[in-house]
Amino acid sequence: MARTTETAAATDTDPAAVVARLRAEFATGRTKPLDWRLRQLRALRTLLTERSEELLAALHADLGKGPKEAYRTEIAFALNELDHTVAHLTEWLRPRAVALPEALRPAEARVVRDPLGVVLVIAPWNYPLQLALTPLVGALAAGNAAVVKPSELAPATSAALARLLPRYLDPRAVAVVEGAVAETTALLEQRFDHIFYTGNGTVARIIMAAAARNLTPVTLELGGKSPVLVEPGADLAVTAERIVRGKFLNAGQTCVAPDYVLAIGDTAAALEEHLAAAVRAAYGEDPSADEEYGRIVNDRHFDRLTGLLDEGRVVTGGAHDRATRYLAPTVLADVSPDAPVMREEIFGPILPVIGVPDLDAAIAFVNERDKPLALYAFTESPATKARLAEETSSGALAFGLPVAHLTVPDLPFGGVGESGMGRYHGPYSIDTFSHTKAVLDKPLG
Ligand code: NAD
Q: Which residue is closest in CA terms to ligand 1's atom 2?
């Protein structure tokens, strides 16, 4: 049931006091019963439905997100995750009996899930609502108390979370701490039982070093350059349409967005034309007039992105306006693998297309670089699919459709190597936010 009291603290400012308060609450055992967990999840559902207009307005203020895209990728996404969790939580938490070696019988052995305690969720700005709430669903479902630290680069959404979460959820066990580097640094001086961080690899190293002081386990959901391979024989119209949908969502500011395309063999020229047509079909002749097309989060990222346009040939897009932080959906061709746009995660609406002679060269290109968060391929060849599965390493591998794998709640979501460590969503969130405990019970008789 939703809490309607306006007296709950809007935001907590003293990290030591917040963590001590949550730790004391966790110690009472109140967060452990299934009933408490389900009540939190249902209250979160009420928050997301009752306050959707307010949340959509915040997302528009922060990132110019249009109402349809914001609803689908932020609110509906979090609702799907929590509905799936509510439906399956009893089954996921059920102790699992395991077989015993002959010498120990008679006895029983089982695997149980213990909540960890007080967990910290640090969220980024690009999907500032769902990347705070989806980990929170897992943390609460696993019976923990939780501190949420939203991103200061999405201030309206951060303020909305600080205002609403303590009103709808149990404020004794859920706190929001707003702020930037100073506040996060102060939080990281506290001892947590798990830290779940989504963001970039540089800050991830700071998080992990801070966690090491208390032997706190971490989940690091990071980014990187997710490639798209396109093989001859793939339907290029369908391929281009799906790449465009995945790439330019949230103006390219999506961790699993296709970062660049490797066009294999003779596909590059025709693919470029199809990509330009797909951009026109999706966003019209003037994407700045499409209310669903987002804006770049801040001036720093805008300047970084426009600086990446200096090399290569613009196939479509390139237009930009600093005053509104608009950058058109842009496809770049004739890009050197050493160009600046290929040296960092783009995280914006620029899609370089690079030609490679064959599948061997494409696989080598991927394997010479950091392990990506996702690897995508458009191919009709089962042999190519098998080779990519065998010969490459990435957080996820998807054929024929970028980005959508993260909407399948029973698939683990996470990176490998530079793209992160650990995973969540659905049952994997229960793994992340629980201790998987061994219990042996041998009768004395
Ligand atoms: P960001 O700048 O909002 O930072 C993320 C969080 O780190 C914020 O809460 C911020 O306050 C905190 N932070 C920043 N500097 C800090 C410091 N010095 N010490 C402690 N905390 C600090 O977001 P970002 O990193 O710009 O996000 C973009 C990156 O996140 C991209 O690389 C993207 O690929 C990745 N990302 C990954 C996922 C995923 O699920 N794997 C999702 C979204 C974004």
A: 124
Which is the closest atom of ligand 1 to the Cα of 128? Answer: 3
- In a shared domain, residues 153 and 82: yes
Q: Name the closest-CA residue to atom 11, ligand 1.
A: 180
pTM for this model (two decimals)? 0.95
Domain of 40, CATH number, reads: 3.40.605.10
Residue 10 lies in a domain: no
pLDDT band at residue 9, thresholds of 50, 70 and 90? very low
Question: What is the tens place of the pLDDT at every residue in 376-426?
Answer: 999 999 999 999 999 999 999 999 999 999 999 999 999 999 999 999 999
Within 8 A by CB and 6+ apart from 289, the residues are none
Nearest Cα to Cα of residue 439 among 115, 116, 114: 114
Spatial contact of 260 and 355, defined as CB atoms under 8 Å apart: no
* 293 within domain boundaries: yes
Question: Which of the residues 25, 74, 221, 272 is marked catalytic?
Answer: 221
Residue located nearest, by CA, to atom 18 of ligand 1: 181
User: Is a pLDDT exceeding 60 seen at residue 4?
Assistant: no
Q: How many angstroms is it from 281 CA to the middle of ligand 1?
A: 32
What residue has token string 């213990």? 114
Q: What is the span of the domain harbouring residue 303?
A: 227-407
Cα 150 to ligand 1 centre (Å): 10
